[in-house]
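ok new one. same drill as before - structure tokens go in, u give me an amino acid for every spot. 487 of them this time. try not to just spam alanines like last time pls lmao
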């Protein structure tokens, strides 16, 4: 899979394109060299044949047919295994002189050139070889064939062709290897940038993209991204400082106002005035809760990771949260169902996780009408710890499911209900710290009240030490009831 992903990278495709261009250039260069080399050797052979023909023609003009026959026989006798080939025949191909016995069966070209094999078909007694010759007519109806043995020339051409083929193969292999190594180096540096970026997006804002100090394009990109991150962190810190300062500065006078209203409530005898004071206290409490939630979310987002990380059994944690809110569900006549698989453990901050689960259960109870149904599920699946809360409430439209985690955002149908729109923002902040994923789906799709199912998926852990200890106890005391084991 890693090799396939490497082949799909843009850097490898660019290297592959370069390889094709480079290989095409090499092929054209080698083809030109072959054409020039082979063409020169062929032209040289033809020139040698033409020179011999010119010499024999000169002998024929000076000494006639008998002189031509004599000179051919002399040349054959002087060099019986020579590269030159001669055959003088009548117009009916009866041999008069030469070192081959029969006329070749190959068809000559318009200019009289012919390529044939030196074998038994032409009366050649040696090893089979290739030859090239030219034919012309001698006055008196005689036919003269003058040629050369081109076996070595053909072998040289084959050597050049094999060299070109091997050269192309080696060139393609080296280009492919070079492209793979180059793309691998490029991909490795890009992957470093991607991994660091993903960790930064998950909340580790203090991380920066490393560079090699080579001041190449990647180093310049890393430097620009790091400067951008520094600027973003600076602006975020400025905004967070302003919001925290506002929350802190307003919370103190608001607390004083709330206490004064509560004192007024205790001292007022008039029922109408007492009710107004009670409502003012409730509004002040709501404002204080909003400021406290804002400050808590800000602290979570600035922290970027869980503080007191321990192995937490979320089945037990959710059971505690359900006990806390079950009475509230009973007041509204809601069916409160629980399906908690034991032994589902995660690594995290127990207090933050309890806050997340409590907020989700509280939301389900708040937005589910009386006599509705709420179902809490904890299970382990494919190495993940899964918590889900299902309700039969008003639900969330599909187009708003991605917006409910924004601060102060409230679904249109829920604006008349009490709340400040910060509960799911806090849940999202805790989930990001614990590397959890949150999915929102309809409990009853297509119905008038579709309800909402919120599913939180977290990496599960196995408590090996506890498991080994339990096995030891069970081995020593097999009669111990499993339900009475360690918690």
């Amino acid at each position: 899979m890693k090799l396939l992903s490497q082949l799909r990278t843009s850097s490898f495709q660019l290297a592959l394109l370069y390889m094709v261009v480079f290989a095409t250039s090499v092929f054209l260069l080698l083809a030109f060299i072959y054409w020039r080399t082979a063409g020169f050797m062929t032209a040289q052979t033809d020139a040698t044949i033409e020179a011999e023909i010119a010499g024999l023609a000169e002998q024929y003009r000076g000494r006639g047919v008998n002189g031509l026959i004599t000179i051919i026989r002399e040349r054959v006798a002087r060099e019986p295994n020579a590269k030159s080939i001669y055959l003088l025949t009548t117009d009916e191909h009866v041999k008069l002189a030469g070192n081959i016995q029969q006329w070749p069966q190959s068809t000559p070209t318009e200019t009289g050139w012919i390529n044939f094999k030196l074998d038994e078909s032409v009366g050649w007694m040696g090893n089979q070889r290739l030859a090239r010759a030219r034919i012309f007519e001698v006055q008196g109806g005689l036919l003269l064939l003058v040629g050369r043995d081109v076996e070595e020339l053909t072998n040289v051409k084959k050597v050049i062709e094999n060299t070109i083929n091997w050269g192309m193969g080696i060139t393609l292999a080296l280009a492919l290897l070079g492209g793979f190594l180059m793309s691998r180096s490029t991909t490795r540096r890009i992957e470093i940038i991607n991994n660091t970026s993903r960790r930064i997006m998950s909340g580790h804002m203090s991380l920066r993209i490393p560079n090699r100090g080579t001041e190449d394009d990647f180093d310049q990109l890393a430097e620009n991204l790091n400067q951008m991150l520094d600027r973003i962190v600076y602006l975020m810190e400025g905004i967070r400082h302003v919001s925290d300062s506002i929350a802190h500065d307003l919370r103190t006078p608001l607390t004083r106002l709330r206490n004064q209203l509560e004192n007024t409530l205790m001292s007022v005898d008039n029922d109408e005035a007492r009710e107004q004071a009670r409502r003012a206290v409730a509004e002040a409490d709501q404002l204080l809760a909003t400021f406290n939630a804002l400050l808590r979310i800000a602290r979570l987002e600035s922290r970027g990771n869980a503080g007191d990380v321990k192995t937490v059994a979320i089945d037990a944690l959710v059971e505690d949260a359900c006990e806390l809110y079950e009475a509230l569900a009973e007041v509204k006549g809601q069916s409160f169902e629980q399906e908690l698989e034991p032994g589902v453990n995660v690594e995290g901050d127990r207090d933050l996780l309890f806050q997340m689960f409590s907020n989700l259960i509280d939301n389900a109870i708040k937005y589910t009408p009386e006599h509705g149904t709420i179902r809490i599920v904890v299970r382990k699946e494919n190495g993940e710890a899964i918590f889900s809360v299902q309700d039969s409430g008003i639900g969330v439209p599909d187009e708003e499911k991605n917006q409910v985690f924004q601060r102060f955002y409230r679904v249109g149908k829920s604006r008349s209900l009490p709340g400040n729109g910060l509960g799911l923002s806090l849940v999202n902040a805790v989930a990001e710290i614990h590397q959890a994923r949150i999915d929102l789906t309809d409990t009853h799709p297509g119905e008038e009240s579709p309800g909402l199912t919120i599913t939180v998926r977290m990496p599960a852990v196995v408590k090996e030490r506890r498991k080994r200890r339990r096995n030891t106890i069970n081995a020593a005391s097999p009669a111990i009831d499993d339900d009475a084991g360690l918690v």
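Residues 10-78 form the longest helix (69 residues). and btw The chain has a mean pLDDT of 77.
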